[in-house]
Structure formats: C-alpha cells, structure tokens
Amino acid sequence: MTGGAFRDATGDLTAEIDRPPATMGRVAGRNGKKTVGSLVLSLGVCVVTAGVVYLFVPHDDSKETPVPRVDYRVELLSARRAAPYPVAAPEGLSKSWKATSVRYEAERNETWHLGFLDPDGQYVAVEQSTDKPARFIDDASQGAEATSGKQSINGAEWQRYKGDKYDALVLKEKGSTTVVTGTAGFGQLTKMAESLKMERAESA
C-alpha cells in the first residue's frame, strides 16, 4: 500500500504520506548498473575495433621529415669560378638520385661538397679539397682506410678505401684530392664517380 490514513497517538485521523515501494529503488539500481555495464562493453568493442584497423590499414610509423631535394646549379657555377681546381659534379644520373646538400668553402682549403641520396636511400657524397690528402681523406671518409684495391674510371686510377661508417673511392691529383664516399656500396660509389664531370667555369 502506497498511501492511506492512520490514527496518530491523539486518535486523530492522519493521511499517510505516499512513498515509492522499496522494490522501485532496487530496480532503478539494477538499471543503473546495466547502463554502466553497457557503456564499458561498448568502449571495449571500440578499442578492439581500433586496434584491428591499426593493424590492417597501411600506415607510416616514420617520424623523420623527408630530406628536401636541392638545386645546386648556382653553387656549382660559383665554385667552378672560384676553385683553383676543376670542380666535380655528376652528369647523366637518373632523377632517382636526389641532391640533398651543397657548399663551397674557400676559407677551408677550397673545399667542395655535394651530397646525394642514391635510389636506395643511401648517402653518397662528392668531396674535393686542396687540403693535405691524408687529413682530407680521413675526414671526408669518416676514418676509412686505404685498401690494395684500385680501379680505372674514365681513364683515371681511383683507390678504394674501406671503413666502418663509409667506404670511399679516392682520386689524388696535383693540387687537389677528390673523394666519392658514403654509406652506399662500391657499386653506387663507382656509378657516381663515373658520372663526374670535372671542369672550371670559362672566363668571361
């Protein structure tokens, strides 16, 4: 009975206050638990679905910013005008070789640098300088050491250097040293050396 009347201690008839039965509170509690349980279950399904999508949808985990391609034509022309030796740069390489760095430093023994990424993403650099050969080769090749291996490229004799970080092909000429070096194997280093055109800019 949810309502009615009763007599109080004085004998007066008093209306009984209506109030929900205890069973209604228990039902509401169960419904609340069901609602929370449903939310947890739904969240679990969403997490599992997201995990499956992540595993099977292609995605790139690399956080490295791609190295931009540089246009080195202006620097090359300037270096060929300033350097006391024929400055080397490749000709005829495919576009899959990407130039990434270039500089000419007259104050540092007229040093010329031209860096590339080969088609496999390995580093290949062309380095030239009037510095002492032993010191320059050690610096340019990251400590690579001379081997007995030599090879003829475009009529010139290049010596092979082998190192823990870089390998190198070295051409020693009067007044300058040219080093083709990097993380690429000798096959790619040779391809770069074969493509090099060494010249000075024509006087105006």
Entry keywords:
204 residues, alpha+beta, seven-stranded antiparallel beta sheet, 4 helices
Q: Could you write a compact summary of the structure shown?
A:
With about 200 residues, the chain is α+β, with helices and mostly antiparallel strands.
Describe the structure.
With 204 residues, the protein is an alpha+beta fold. The chain has helices at 22-56, 73-82, 133-140, 186-195; strands at 4-7, 13-16, 87-90, 98-105, 111-117, 123-129, 145-153, 156-162, 167-173, 176-182, 196-199. A 7-stranded antiparallel β-sheet has the order 4-5-6-10-9-8-7, with helices on both faces. A two-stranded antiparallel ribbon has the order 1-2. The protein starts with a strand and ends in a 5-residue tail after the last strand.
User: What's the main sheet like?
Assistant: 7 strands, antiparallel
Q: Stretches where pLDDT falls below 50 for ≥5 residues? A: 13-18
Helix content: 25-40%
Global structural class: alpha+beta
Q: How many beta-strand runs?
A: 11
Q: How many whole angstroms does the radius of gyration measure?
A: 39 Å
What is the straight-line distance between the termini? Answer: 115 Å
User: Percent of residues in beta strands?
Assistant: 25-35%
Mean pLDDT metric: 83
Distinct helical segment count: 4
Fold blueprint:
Blueprint: E1 4-7, E2 13-16, H1 22-56, H2 73-82, E3 87-90, E4 98-105, E5 111-117, E6 123-129, H3 133-140, E7 145-153, E8 156-162, E9 167-173, E10 176-182, H4 186-195, E11 196-199
Antiparallel strand pairs: 1-2, 3-11, 4-5, 5-6, 6-10, 7-8, 8-9, 9-10
